[in-house]
Amino acid sequence: MKVKKKILILESKIESSAEVVNCLKGSGYDTDLVSDFEIAIQIMENKSVDLAVIETLSSHYDGFDICKKIMSNEDLSNFPIILMNEEGSELDRVLALELGALDFIKKPFNPRELLLRVRNILTAKTSEIKKTQEQIIQIDKLVIDPEKRRVKIGSEMVKLANMEFNLLLYLARRYGKLQPRIKILQNVWGYSNNANSRTVDTHIRRIREKIGIMGTRLETVRGFGYRFR
Length: 229
Hints:
The protein has 229 residues and is of the alpha/beta class. 41% of the residues lie in helices and 21% in strands. It has two domains: 6-130, Rossmann fold; 132-228, Arc Repressor Mutant, subunit A (Orthogonal Bundle).
């Protein structure tokens, strides 16, 4: 029997999520709907859900802080999160992606739009799990283990945030091939809008700082994108 995927929804006004919950349940997902951020974090830490949808603007909690806390937890650094709020500014979207959220959606939204985003993320996660069976990637002193999601420079471990690891792995898998910024945003972040943010640039800078001398191997092609060489 196929186990249903479970979606956690953290929203201050539970009644406003009834339509979304019904849409998800009608499409074969189980849901946990909560308004207490401490309960939400506990649920995620217990790994009893497969994806979380978190409201960022609340008088009781800050959804961005919750996302940051989850991503800083080594055991949860790859946990899929969608952030949402009523402002939906470009700055909010960029901040969400930089913190490690996989998507951002502006309220109010059509429940089916959220359903499609949830489905796309979980499908991608399933594919990612299969890809982790790939062999370890080694470029000079840099060693990337896709299965354990670990990076080493020689014998020294390098601690990367979730999206930093995903970006480094994406470029390493395409060694020597120039990758446009928009293509990186689409394939690493699932960001389908125009590439007018500096999200990729910020993550590249952080990766360079963390991998030391190997950072010089991440080449910037101004006005176009990046490649590992």
